[in-house]
Amino acid sequence: MSITAVTKEGPAAVAPAPTVGSHVRGYWQRVRGGDIGALPAVAGLLVLCTIFSIMRPSFLTAGNFANLFTQGAAVTLIAMGLVFVLLLGEIDLSAGFASGVCAAVLANLITVLGYPWYVAVLAALLTGMVIGTILGFLVAKVGIPSFVVTLAGFLAFQGVVLLLMKEGRNISVREPVVVAIVNRNMPVALGWTLAAIAVAGFAVVQLLRYRSRAARNLINDPFPVVLGRIAALALVLGLAVYVLNLERSLNVLITSLKGVPIVVPIVAVLLVVLTFVLQRTSYGRHIYAVGGNREAARRAGINVDRIRISAFMICSTMAAVGGIVAASRANSVDPNTGGSNVLLYAVGAAVIGGTSLFGGKGRILDAVLGGAVVAVIDNGMGLMGYSSGVKYVVTGVVLLLAASVDALSRRRASATGNR
Amino acid sequence: MSATPLLELRGIDKSFGPVQVLRDVAFAAYPGEVTALVGDNGAGKSTLVKCISGIYPIDAGEFVFDGQPVTISSPRDAASLGIEVVYQDLALCDNLDIVQNMFLGREKRNGLVLDEPTMEQMAAETLAGLSVRTVKSLRQHVSSLSGGQRQTVAIAKAVLWNSKLVILDEPTAALGVAQTAQVLELVRRLADNGLAVVLISHNMNDVFAVSDRIAALYLGQMVAQVKTTEITHAQVVELITAGRSGELGLAVDPGVNGNGAAPADSTTGGVS
Ligand SMILES: Nc1ncnc2c1ncn2[C@@H]1O[C@H](COP(=O)(O)OP(=O)(O)OP(=O)(O)O)[C@@H](O)[C@H]1O
Ligand SMILES: [Mg+2]
């Protein structure tokens, strides 16, 4: 075949090896072409943190840093599940109250019926899975738009929470294991060990990948870039663990308060597992395919209905995890658990992080980065003494901003033929 | 050029409810040859292709593949026989890269984990085997490709699986002059590599440029299947628009069996 005017370079296998410079240029080109990924979230995070640190010095303390994690965990977990549904181009408006239902199941089993924590946790997760199955079935098999199905779920689950709460009374959760999830910290040494394991594991995966691609003469990221990635993770994790391991008790004589909150490794493990599922398994590949072009996926022999149902199952199950964490944080479950701003914060987290509302684009890490942005806004504005009213307005504006960035970058991408 | 067809259809009937779309259709595709399938809009070309690829069940008729009678009841059956279809709308996922698209639904795995290096290598080899040099990186999203490049990826996807028969539904319909030439060259190369190729096209220049045989459908009937060298441009146009041309095609009056047998071709689908 003659080489046409379209491109001038040779086939992929013999293209010149990329250098650090060409790698950076390639990245910048993708960004300019509309493929901005998590860039807005990272930039937003830096800007927000800088502003809040200047305005309120108490923002930049070890104690507040730990607060960010415990405050943002539930929303982030729900957002991680939402990514699956958003990747399909669907939406789950019921995720917030689904987490409330699961938390109510947990509280009832532990406090009212006296079951051990693992039974209650399992039942809560199972409840989430069942909810997701029903939602997914209605969307995929019956063919109702997910917006309608989950809007109905939003209302119905709100009612279910009320019913489970015996008309409005809240149920306290005093079970030590459940309470520990958000309210207890890991020993200092364990925090360092886990961080070291995480960095080492990441390094091994990256280096093995580099070697196997190099052995086959495939295009590789430049080695310094690979090393840089590992170093960046080590730096971020090291810094976070260091700060979280600082003493944050006001009076050490009464009680010592330091270490990484237990919920952090839980979020981290789920981040790794779900990222693995999305990026490294054919199931994950099929999720992207269904979100990108459902008909193409169907013709490729992918069972589209099964993919869609399973995405809703994962989403609601993650909502259950979020509900458990919320119950742990509040030491109780009330009719408003999973209500008010939880859902919008979660959707906002996913979208702010760079997950597209149009489907086919997004990562689990997006939910975590976006969750961090939401937590910082909520926390920082609280410190500055703004009322919830202002907080809601600002978060709403940020969500709109993120959605506009999504829509605009999409337009730009189709204009430049990038995506 | 081989004399025995790789795929032979006989007496295919297909109706959608009361509408009979295919009527007693006979068709053959030969290894190493490009068979052009022509016909007016609504003649039933795409329907015939979908019957071959297992998307539509047939009402009557038989398939013979590689000398064996077969039944194809799903796309999977067709794929396992080595039949691949490049649909007119291509069916690529814009948000996935070239390699991911080529292996979609049939990913190579190492246990649970996707085997990306193997897939990338196989994709590179397939594209190199087709002498495709127009894509910059195998890891670029399909959305960033030109129409011709996308068509190339769709065709490469079809030949990746040791397929024996590749069917292309109007692969050049949306392409400019240069890219059309590029895709036609690729089509020719597939046949030269020994595959049986079926090319659906409305463009007579394309048809005469690459095909070895021409099969003409007229209102759901196969009116002729002849060697390209033995028919003229004008005759094909007549077959497409009127269903007959001189000795070829449908009978003049009903009742007389004016079978339009093409010389030296036993698989002519003259039907009255
Ligand atoms: N699923 C269907 N249900 C009912 N009728 C159909 C269906 N698919 C196709 N037809 C009819 O069958 C006839 C043949 O359609 P087909 O798509 O095979 O034509 P074609 O030869 O591919 O035309 P074109 O050149 O426009 O692509 C048309 O009259 C069409 O209306
Ligand atoms: Mg057609």
From TrEMBL, chain A:
Gene source species: Micromonospora gifhornensis
Lineage top rank: taxon: Bacteria
Transmembrane segments: 36-56, 68-88, 95-115, 121-140, 147-165, 185-205, 226-244, 259-278, 309-330, 342-360, 367-386, 392-409
Topology versus the membrane: Multi-pass membrane protein
Protein name, per record: Xylose transport system permease protein XylH
Alphabetic keyword roster: Cell inner membrane, Cell membrane, Membrane, Sugar transport, Transmembrane, Transmembrane helix, Transport
Main localisation: membrane
Purpose of the protein: Part of the binding-protein-dependent transport system for D-xylose. Probably responsible for the translocation of the substrate across the membrane.
Entry's localization field: Cell membrane
TrEMBL record, chain B:
Keywords recorded for this protein, A-Z: ATP-binding, Nucleotide-binding
Gene Ontology terms, MF aspect: ATP binding
Domain of life the protein comes from: Bacteria
InterPro entries, A to Z: AAA+_ATPase, ABC_carbohydrate_import_ATPase, ABC_transporter-like_ATP-bd, P-loop_NTPase
Domain ABC transporter, residue spans: 7-244
Keyword DNA-binding carried by entry: no
Database matches in Gene3D superfamilies: P-loop containing nucleotide triphosphate hydrolases
Name of a matching Pfam family: ABC_tran
Classification via PANTHER family: CARBOHYDRATE TRANSPORT ATP-BINDING PROTEIN MG119-RELATED, SUGAR ABC TRANSPORTER ATP-BINDING PROTEIN
Protein name: ABC transporter ATP-binding protein
